[in-house]
Write a structure and sequence with these properties.
Elements (H helix, E strand, L loop, with lengths): L10 E4 L5 H12 L3 E6 L2 H10 L6 E4 L5 H10 L3 E6 L14 H24 L3 E10 L13 H20 L6 E7 L5 H5 L6 H9 L9 H12 L10 E4 L7
Parallel strand pairs: 1-2, 1-4, 2-3, 4-5, 5-6, 6-7
Helix pairs in contact: 1-8, 3-4, 4-5
The structure holds NADP nicotinamide-adenine-dinucleotide phosphate.
């Protein structure tokens, strides 16, 4: 059956697929026919993700992307790819006044250096087939909106959305497309980890009023990834695609 959104015959790497958005992306890509490479640090949650994938021949790889060794180990173990969703990320809530260099270096390593080095090594090691698609998971926070206490996180996401544009230009010679998806609020583990400066109930209530279509789900983000990874997105490169339930118009 004709379906330009099919991922049949494609091998897709999804970093940070042990939970939340990455897990949803991996599952939905497998439902669209892709062979998926799932990654994260937590072995148990990685196996849970694998158990939810449709089809066979998927690969699970553990690696800590906060380190250069972890990034290199992942690329070494990766088969040839037709696409990747560079999604692994972490929050860090700190007032500017109390910013610590150690915290800044940690979040920059995971959210910024890792996806940039993964992109670099994927191309250098010729792991990307012709006409591949790279999708970064960025954030409106840092590109379009600001949130108290999130300056370090915003800096990493703004950087990745900026890097994406040059990467789209440089890698186009091989037909590689490079884009970013900027999700609005999707309730995942990241919210628990973010240890927000505002109490959780208060934050949820305040945020809910900012979302004309309510909060999102991992699948809402996965559907955008499928568009960009599939042949349906073959003329799309260098864009920041906001999938945010209307947050940025409100
Ligand atoms: N949820 C939202 O509202 C939202 C909005 C905008 C953007 N985002 C972005 O979406 C992405 C996914 O977030 P999420 O909400 O799905 O959060 P999540 O449920 O906490 O998932 C984060 C994923 O990243 C992986 N990860 C974190 N640090 C890592 C490291 N050092 N090495 C390897 N993997 C690491 C985690 O795996 P392990 O713990 O197993 O290592 C996990 O699979 C992030 O880039 C986030 O910034 C989220």
């Amino acid at each position: 059956m004709y379906n330009p959104f099919s991922l049949e015959g494609k091998t897709i790497l999804v970093t940070g697929s042990t939970s939340g958005i990455g897990r949803g992306v991996a599952i939905e890509c497998s439902k669209m026919g892709a062979r998926v490479i799932v990654t994260g640090r937590n072995q148990e949650r990685l196996e849970e993700t694998v158990s939810e994938l449709k089809g066979s021949n998927h690969i699970a790889l553990t690696s800590d992307l906060a380190t250069q060794e972890g990034v290199e180990k992942l690329i070494e173990a990766c088969p040839q790819l037709n696409g990747c969703v560079l999604n692994a990320g972490m929050p860090k809530v700190n007032s500017i006044k109390h910013m610590k260099r150690k915290d800044l270096e940690e979040i920059i390593s995971v959210n910024e250096i890792a996806p940039i080095m993964l992109t670099s090594l994927l191309t250098r090691k010729k792991k990307l087939e012709k006409n591949s698609s790279i999708v970064f998971i960025s954030s409106p926070n840092g590109v379009q909106i600001a949130l108290n206490g999130n300056s370090a996180y915003a800096a990493t996401k703004g950087a990745i959305s900026a890097f994406m544009k040059t990467a789209a230009l440089e890698l186009s010679a091989n037909g590689t497309r490079v884009n970013a998806i900027l999700p609005g609020l999707v309730p995942t583990r990241i919210l628990e980890l973010s240890n927000s400066m505002t109490p959780e109930d208060e934050m949820r209530e305040k945020k809910a009023s900012q979302y004309p279509l309510g909060f999102g789900t991992p699948e809402d983000i996965a559907f955008g990834c499928i568009y960009l990874l599939s042949d349906a997105g073959r003329w799309v490169t260098g864009i920041n695609l906001f999938i945010d339930g209307g947050r940025c118009i409100n």
